[in-house]
Design brief:
Blueprint: E1 5-8, E2 13-17, E3 26-31, E4 35-40, E5 47-52, E6 58-62, E7 68-69, H1 71-79, E8 83-85, E9 89-94, E10 97-102, E11 106-107, E12 121-124, E13 127-129, H2 136-144, E14 156-157, E15 160-161, H3 163-173, H4 182-185, E16 190-192, E17 203-207, E18 214-219, E19 224-229, E20 231-238, E21 241-243, E22 250-259
Antiparallel strand pairs: 1-4, 1-7, 2-3, 4-5, 5-6, 8-11, 8-13, 9-10, 9-12, 14-15, 16-22, 17-18, 17-22, 18-19, 19-20, 20-21, 21-22
Helix pairs in contact: 2-3
Length: 264
């Protein structure tokens, strides 16, 4: 599909929808700093069809929330090692207007600037280099920042997130790029053959009781798993699957475990 233009998210959180209407399901979200290609800007008034550069997700963005950039700026973003935020919220002054941005947002500052920034920013918060890979203790600390976030289909923020969004954004902040969909995440890394061989930071995949829906979470210490089910919660991980801490009921059956960190 022909690329008609380029954009970058300059709002704290923007929904990408399955079809060009407000009532359409949310398939993912853009955080501040996520950039994308514009594939269709004419067929549907008030909406543009985009491809998110980070993971290739296709969807519809409200034209009111589009911030256009040049191809040159887009290409430079691809090669710049920008910062990704590690606080639940950070403050930002953009074009003399204050904004609050969320955990996992990308801010256009780096140790060695490759180009002259087109827009002026003042940033206050904690961040790390986007491309810097971190180990399991950091990954676990980031995952725990989403604890008790409500479940939201298509969500990617501490104020609403789904199972695949939790895994994708936690690994992204830790320096690892994963697809958005669970059926693609399950092909990443290396398979761990037995639960007893699993390590903290591994990703466990499950079936629900109907065996029609995939589910997943990140393995923690002491046979625990953090996952988004109603809310981001920590439950027991056993051979039979996820055992709820509160109800003592198995909610999902274990399907496969994948190692993304150090898959050797």
């Amino acid at each position: 599909m022909e690329v008609l233009g380029y954009g970058v998210c300059r709002l704290s959180l923007v929904s990408i929808r399955q079809s060009p209407e407000e009532q359409a399901p949310v398939i993912t979200q853009l955080l501040f700093g996520d950039h994308y290609e514009v594939l269709n800007a004419t067929d549907q008034k008030g909406w543009i069809y985009i491809r998110i550069h980070f993971d290739g997700t296709l969807g519809w963005l409200s034209a009111d929330q589009h911030h256009g950039i040049t191809q040159e700026y887009f290409d430079q973003i691809n090669h710049a090692n920008f910062k990704i935020t590690t606080d639940l919220t950070c403050s930002l002054l953009f074009k003399k207007s204050p904004s609050t941005i969320l955990l996992g947002s990308i801010v256009p500052i780096s140790n060695s600037e490759l180009f002259k920034i087109e827009e002026q920013f003042a940033f206050n918060g904690e961040a790390k280099s986007l491309g810097q890979k971190r180990e399991v203790e950091f990954l676990k600390s980031i995952a725990l920042k989403y604890l008790n976030a409500p479940f939201l289909a298509g969500g990617k923020s501490p104020f609403g997130i789904d199972a695949s969004g939790l895994i994708q954004i936690v690994f992204k902040i830790s320096g690892f790029l994963l697809p958005r969909q669970l059926d693609r995440q399950i092909a990443e890394g290396k398979k761990v053959e037995k639960l007893e061989d699993a390590l903290p930071g591994d990703v466990a995949f499950f079936h629900d009781h109907s065996k029609k829906q995939l589910h997943a979470g990140i393995i923690l210490d002491d046979q625990k798993i953090i996952h988004a089910d109603g809310r981001v919660r920590i439950d027991h991980l056993l051979e039979d699957g996820i055992l709820r801490v509160d109800s003592k009921i198995y909610t999902h059956s274990l399907l496969e475990i994948r190692r993304i960190l150090n898959p050797v």
